């Protein structure tokens, strides 16, 4: 029987899940350490609701999702969704995504007494002639790429920054632009509350991204076909 379970950060499911993450994200600079993931949900940080959600059958993990809700910006962030290769292409990623979105919606109503705003995620840049399965999935879920030069800060002091990612957002309608202030508020929350590096360095990365965004609306591009907005 299938069931959802949220991790406390101190349970054996987290260790089981991490092997799936290591396989799906081989680049250590783009992957949180097991220690940081445990802290992500076990240590309460003001301003953010952190979640690690597992879909299980018996004691086995079919897939997991790491995500968060940020109070100030009323935004969500999806860090990872992974599914055991033995269970791929069976609709489980969608089940996990839908449950995660439900939880984010509940967070928004509980914390801010309002509907959830935008949901963001990072996606690996890819060769347009070799579109990965993940890009197709996020495209179908209504995500679009933000048209600006994005840099992810180091996940912790032992890792490097990454310029191999793009930032995407789930739009509400057929939007072609997003207010830069919405993106800036999300980045301030995301960088300031998630990354395990010194505050002065975090501030530097936030300022760098805000400068790149500027004051104009940010263009939205199709994930599958960047020349198109839908």
What's the layout of helices and strands?
Layout: E1 2-6, H1 12-24, H2 34-42, E2 48-57, E3 60-70, E4 75-83, H3 92-112, E5 119-124, H4 133-140, E6 143-146, E7 165-170, E8 177-178, H5 180-194, H6 199-213, E9 218-222
Structural summary, described in words:
By secondary structure, this protein is an alpha+beta fold. It has 2 domains: 117 residues, Gcn5-related N-acetyltransferase (GNAT) (Aminopeptidase, 3-Layer(aba) Sandwich); 109 residues, no CATH class. The protein contains 6 helices and 9 strands; from the N terminus they run βααβββαβαβββααβ. A 9-stranded mixed β-sheet has the order 1-2-3-4-5-7-6-9-8, with helices on both faces. α5 runs antiparallel to α6.
Label this structure with key terms.
single chain; 230 residues; alpha+beta; Aminopeptidase; 2 domains; nine-stranded mixed sheet; 6 helices; 9 strands; 25% strand; globular
Q: What strand line-up does the widest sheet have?
A: 1-2-3-4-5-7-6-9-8
For the record, what CATH class of the largest domain applies? Alpha Beta
Please give the number of β-strands.
9
What is the CATH superfamily of the largest domain?
Gcn5-related N-acetyltransferase (GNAT)
End-to-end distance, in Å? 38 Å
Content-based structural category: alpha+beta
């Amino acid at each position: 029987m299938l069931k959802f379970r949220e991790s406390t950060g101190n349970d054996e499911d987290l260790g089981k899940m991490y092997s799936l993450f290591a396989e799906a994200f081989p680049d250590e600079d783009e992957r949180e350490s097991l220690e940081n993931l445990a802290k992500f949900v076990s240590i309460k940080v003001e301003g953010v609701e952190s979640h690690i959600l597992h879909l299980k059958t018996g004691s086995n993990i079919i897939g997991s999702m790491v995500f968060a809700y940020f109070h100030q910006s009323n935004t969500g962030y999806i860090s990872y969704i992974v599914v055991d290769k033995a269970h791929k292409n069976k609709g489980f990623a969608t089940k996990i995504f839908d449950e995660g979105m439900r939880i984010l919606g509940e967070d928004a109503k509980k914390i801010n007494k309002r509907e959830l705003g935008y949901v963001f995620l990072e996606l690996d840049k890819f060769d347009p002639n070799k579109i990965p399965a993940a890009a197709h999935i996020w495209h179908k879920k209504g995500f679009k790429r933000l048209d600006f030069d994005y840099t992810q800060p180091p996940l912790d002091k032992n890792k490097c920054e990454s310029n191999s990612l793009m930032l995407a957002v789930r739009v509400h309608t057929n939007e072609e632009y997003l207010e830069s202030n919405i993106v800036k508020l999300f980045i301030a929350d995301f960088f300031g509350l998630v990354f395990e590096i010194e505050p002065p360095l975090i501030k530097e990365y936030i300022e760098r991204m805000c400068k790149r965004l500027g004051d104009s609306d940010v263009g939205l591009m199709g994930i599958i076909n960047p020349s198109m907005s839908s």
